[in-house]
Amino acid sequence: MTITQDVVTIPRKLPGGDRINLVGLTRDQLRDALIAAGTPERQAKMRTGQVWQWIYQKGVRDFSAMTNLAKEYRALLAANFVIELPEIVSRNVSADGTRKYLIRIAGGHEVETVYIPEETRGTLCISSQVGCTLTCTFCHTGTQKLVRNLTAGEIVGQVMLARDDLGEWPAPGRAPKVEARLLSNVVLMGMGEPLYNFDNVRDAMKIVMDGEGISLSRRRITLSTSGVVPEIARAAEEIGCLLAVSFHATTDAVRDKLVPINRKWNIAQLLEALRAYPKLSNSERITFEYVMLKGVNDSDADARRLVALIRGIPAKINLIPFNEWPGAPYERSDWERIESFADIIYKAGYASPIRTPRGEDIMAACGQLKSATERARKSRAQIAEEAGLG
Ligand code: SAH
Ligand code: SF4
Question: Which domains does the chain have, with CATH numbers?
Fold first, then answer.
């Protein structure tokens, strides 16, 4: 397979001094910031709308390009604010077109963002934390300790960087593209547990969905959680996007090992929260993610238990062949096993797509993300012990 790698270092702006970065502020926060910088209150609403559109609809980073604002006002903005994104450290392109970006955020930490092109759409998989506090035993990110939560600006910044790289901002003077977007969907399935960074994820997704900006419909955004039960209803009410859940097992004994958060909120509690979600969020079905691990959770009995458990929940079951990573204590289920599992689910009336691994050659597939530069890691012995194999 051919892998291309080019290192693009976008020069960071000179340190902004006290200047505030506008990327990631909610509309209300932006309005307050503009007023604090001297915008008259009676103009604040209009100015907020104008600046918002320049940043999120047109992708402009330089106040001097905001041509519908008076020169003096542009100077005032430039003196007080910056429009800054995280930095792309490297960009790898897989043989299948998947792009993996290594992104550096404040403090020198790194996260990964993956763009997956498909025939009729393009999905960006974004990260919400550097590392993860959870320790799912099959997940590479889970071997990396949590370093910190991403800010709202760093989360929406990943979408903006990808749009930069895809050349997807409208040309000056042109209306934004509504159809056939290269970046048409966002999934919160990169590094981290999004519901453990709730406020920043919510604020960033509100910006992504805002009709005067990037303008992605809430039905094109999917948040994946390992099962932070108390935050699920809040996600429905305050974000309203689609929900995916890392289910992965059909008994508490197995789920306790694979997804240790299950020891806090078990399968019954999780299912109760999931049952309420579609109504609360006015969305259709929930995606159940199910990683196929050889001899661990992939039997026909598991498939039958799974359909019995989720009965009554509008659902699609996404089977994910396990993606290997160095030192992983599991193996991918055989193809025939996965098909037989899928067949039982399909016959029970659920869509059961098998997720084709994308970008495996550049370690961009599900669960393979981990920033190599982060040294804090758990030992192999600890991973094996958590998997119950020690
Ligand atoms: N923390 C969130 C979102 C990120 S993980 C969550 O756990 O839901 C995105 C999906 O990839 C999850 O379903 C996760 O369980 C799955 N995954 C993790 N490691 C994997 C691996 N090695 N192979 C296949 N899928 C994996
Ligand atoms: Fe964290 Fe999700 Fe990986 Fe579990 S699967 S360790 S919750 S990123």
Answer: 20-82 (1.10.150.530), 87-386 (3.20.20.70)
